[in-house]
Specification:
Layout lengths: L1 E5 L9 H16 L4 E7 L11 E6 L5 H20 L6 E5 L12 E4 L4 H4 L7 H15 L3 E4 L2 H11 L6 E3 L14 H12 L5 E5 L8 H11 L7 E5 L13 H7 L6 E4 L6 H7 L2 E4 L8 H8 L4 E4 L4 H5 L4 E3 L4 H13 L1 H16 L3 H30 L1
Helix pairs in contact: 1-14, 6-9, 7-12, 10-13
Protein name: Glycosyl transferase group 1
GO molecular function, one term: glycosyltransferase activity
Keywords: Transferase
């Protein structure tokens, strides 16, 4: 079998879909090296190191960036994949993000992590974005099979896109192998203190700063407990990726309005330091209102951090019984949970242990195995279809 992959996100290993493909593809090759893997990349893309067994085929597309993106996804990828299939091998096109081609001569397996741009009005963007999302929504209906990251997202896809249940499969994400408990937590805290000027104890959040991430609830909850815990800092890692204040609230203004001042520390964390902050923090918090999966809480649990999350969308499914779950807009509930963990070292240790067990129940090996099973089933159906066609005309 040949697996032709839309590799648009291979050059972005720090974003969610980039992390997904960087962890998934090496495991796919390890589990099934007999298949041929070809990743299509826009020409000129910076290419991080590729795993063994993955071939790269650069694709040159001219024109403005957004136009080139659509041409790559909707024209170049399906056409080149079809050409590669001329060698007679069963070939499946794998699109690991929400951008399947509207037309393809080959069966298409598409990963849809969530439907946020379709479901949340604030994320629908400009008219151009809306047209694009209408296109890929229609294209998703023609996908042979859809993969998604949680049962919550699967149910949403079934209800919103109207796909039949046998065409949508859950393939969970997992924390990368670099996320593990600290060997010496005090030493890690000292390193974080030196590098980021953050002393323990501290509460940690990492992620987007857009509206659905609900950082304002965290800030308001911290403001309620601040006077009692003057020695505790709230550390926020992340940055706004746009200027639209409806989508990206002014976090600094919120901090000033709540009179939190130096009690909140905003930092940028390079990808290689990601595990350090999880390992060093006293509590990890994730108040998001909407997730298709929710990787940061799982990464934090893999590092033995006690976790508080919203009891919304996919997050309860990800953390199980290994985290405290609070309604996303229950500011008093968040303040109570934070105070409870700050006061109870035993509970923090218990949640840390339970979190490690929960995080270990997810693995990219299993994700890759399920993905391969679907791809192989689709390829086998193609073989049967071709055989029946030959018999009909023969």
């Amino acid at each position: 079998m040949q697996i032709v992959i839309n590799g648009s996100f291979w050059s972005q290993p720090t974003v969610g879909i980039g992390q997904y493909v960087h962890n998934l593809l090496p495991w796919m090759y390890r589990l099934a090296p007999q298949h041929r893997y070809v990743i299509l990349l826009p020409a000129g893309t910076t290419i991080p190191a590729l795993p063994d067994g993955i071939e790269v085929l650069p694709v040159k597309i001219g024109g403005p960036r957004q136009v080139a993106k659509v041409i790559f996804e909707q024209v170049a990828v399906p056409v080149i994949a079809a050409r590669l299939a001329r060698n007679g091998e069963p070939t499946v096109l794998f699109v690991p993000y929400f951008a399947p081609p509207l037309r393809s001569k080959l069966p298409v397996v598409t990963t849809i992590g969530d439907l946020i741009p379709l479901l949340l009005p604030a994320y629908r963007g400009s008219w151009a974005v809306r047209i694009y999302m209408a296109l890929v929504r229609r294209a998703a209906l023609h996908s042979t099979h859809v993969l998604t990251f949680s049962s919550f997202s699967r149910t949403t896809i079934l209800n919103y896109l109207g796909l039949s249940p046998d065409r949508v499969t859950v393939t969970y994400l997992a924390a990368g192998e670099q996320f593990r408990p600290p060997v010496d937590k005090v030493a890690v805290q000292q390193l974080v203190a030196a590098r980021y000027k953050v002393q323990p104890p501290f509460i940690y959040y990492v992620g987007g700063l857009d509206e659905r991430k609900n950082v304002y609830t965290l800030l308001r909850a911290f403001a309620l407990v601040r006077n009692r815990y003057r020695h505790v800092t709230l550390v926020i890692a992340g940055r706004a990726l746009g200027r639209d204040r409806r989508l990206f609230p002014d976090i600094d203004q919120m901090i000033a309005d709540l009179d939190l001042g130096l009690a909140v520390r905003r930092i940028d964390v390079p990808v290689e330091d990601g595990p350090l902050l999880y390992q060093a923090c006293t509590i990890f918090t994730y108040p998001s209102r909407y997730e298709g999966f929710g990787l940061p809480p799982l990464e934090a649990m893999a590092c033995a951090a006690p976790v508080i999350v919203s009891d919304a969308t996919s997050l309860p499914e990800v953390v199980g019984a290994a985290a405290i779950k609070i309604a996303p807009d229950d500011v008093a509930g968040w303040a109570t949970a934070i105070a409870r963990l700050l006061d109870d070292e035993t509970l923090r240790a218990e949640l840390g242990q339970r979190g490690m067990v929960q995080a270990a129940s997810f693995s990219y090996q299993r994700t890759a195995a399920t993905t391969l099973t679907i791809l192989e089933q689709v390829a086998q159906a193609l073989v049967i279809e071709r055989k029946q066609h030959r018999e009909e005309i023969g």
